[in-house]
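Researcher: Next entry: 2-octaprenyl-3-methyl-6-methoxy-1,4-benzoquinol hydroxylase (Luteimonas cucumeris).
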Amino acid sequence: MRHRNRLDIAVVGGGVVGAACALALSKLGLEVALVEAHAPPPWRADRPDLRVYAFAPDNAALLQHCGVWTSVVDARVQSYRRMCVWDAAGGGELQFDADAFGRDELGWIIEHGLLVDRLWAALPAAGVQLRCPSKVEALEPLDDGVRLRLDDGSRLEANLVIAADGAGSSVRELAGMEVDAHDYAQRGVVAYVETGLPHQQTAWQRFLPSGPLAFLPCADGSSSIVWTLPEDDATRVMALDDEAFDRELATAFEMRLGPTRVMSKRAAFPLRRQLARDYVSGRVVVIGDAAHVVHPLAGQGVNLGLRDVTALVDSIRAARARRADYASPQRLARWARTRRSDNAMAAYAFDGINRVFSSDGVAATLLRGPLLGLAGRLLPVTHGLWKRAAGV
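Model: Predicted structure:
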C-alpha cells in the first residue's frame, strides 16, 4: 500500500538512463517523479552533439516500449551493418556483419542530446512528475521508504529512490555507498570528421599502442571519432591546428577511409573505471553511471545502464503481479547481484582489452593481431561476442 502523498518511485537524474527509467516505470502505472538539477537544452539538427552512442538492439526495444524510439529514428540516426576491428601491429581483422546474423543492422549511432530530448518530451504525457531544477540535499531512510529534501526546501517521500545522477552521484554518497575507481591516465578525444571514402555503414576500430581509435558512421555521411590517447598526447593533439590534426588522425587510422577533415569542435574527456561496491542501500538503488563507469572502447556505457533499467523494471513488474513489495531488501538484492556481476564482468573485460592492445610488449604485440584474425574466422565466436554486446 502506498502512503498518502507518497510517491511510488523517485528517480534522481534526468539523463538517458534516468529519463528512460522514469518513463518505463510510469508505463507500469506507478506514480513516478524525476528530479533533475538542470533541464537539458533542446536538441538541434544543425548542432550535432559530440557525445554519441553505439545503441544496441535490446535497448532500442526498451525505448520502443517507452514510446520514443520512432521519434528518435525519425529525427536522425545511422544504422551500422558491419564492424571491423584490427591492430596496428598487423595480423588479421575481427569483422561482424549483420547479414551473417540475419539482421538488418547491428545497431545504431545516436546522439546523446537527441535521446535526452525525445525522452524528456515524452515525460509529461506519461504522467511523470518533473522536479526541475532541483537538487537532492538530504536523504532520510524510513522503515518502508525514503524521504528526500530538495534544495528548494521541499520534500519528497517515495517507496523507492533510484539514483541515476551520474558518476559523481550525490544520492549514492548520501546513501553511504562507496566506489572502487581506477584512472586510466587516458583521455578520449571526440569530434566529427569528413572522410575521403564513404563510411560503408561500418563501425571501425583500430588498436594502437596509445589506445583504440574508433570511427563511427553518421547519418550525414560523416564519422564520429573517439580517439583514446595518454593524457599528454591528448593535450598535444587538442592543441594542433585543424590541418595538422587531420594529417595525424588519418595516419593513426591507416588511411582506411582516405584523408580526413575535422568538421566540428574537438573535446577531450578523462577515462576511468568506477564501480559501486553495492547497488542497494535500504530502499535506494544506483543505476547507470552512478553504479558503473567503463572504458569506452566497446561503446557499452549507456547500453549497460539501460540494461540496469530493463532488469529493474522486470523485477518490479513481477513483484506487482504477485502483489508483493517491489522494494523489499531481498528482491532488490537479487536484482543487484545480477546487474553488478554483469557490469563488473564487462568493466574488467574492457580493462583487460585496453591493457593488452595498448601494450608494446613483444608477446602481446605478436599475438593480438593473429588472435583477432582467428576470432574473426570462427563464426560461433563472432556470434557470441556480438550477442553479448547486443543484449540478445
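Model: Note for the record: Confidence is low (pLDDT under 50) at residues 362-367, 373-384.
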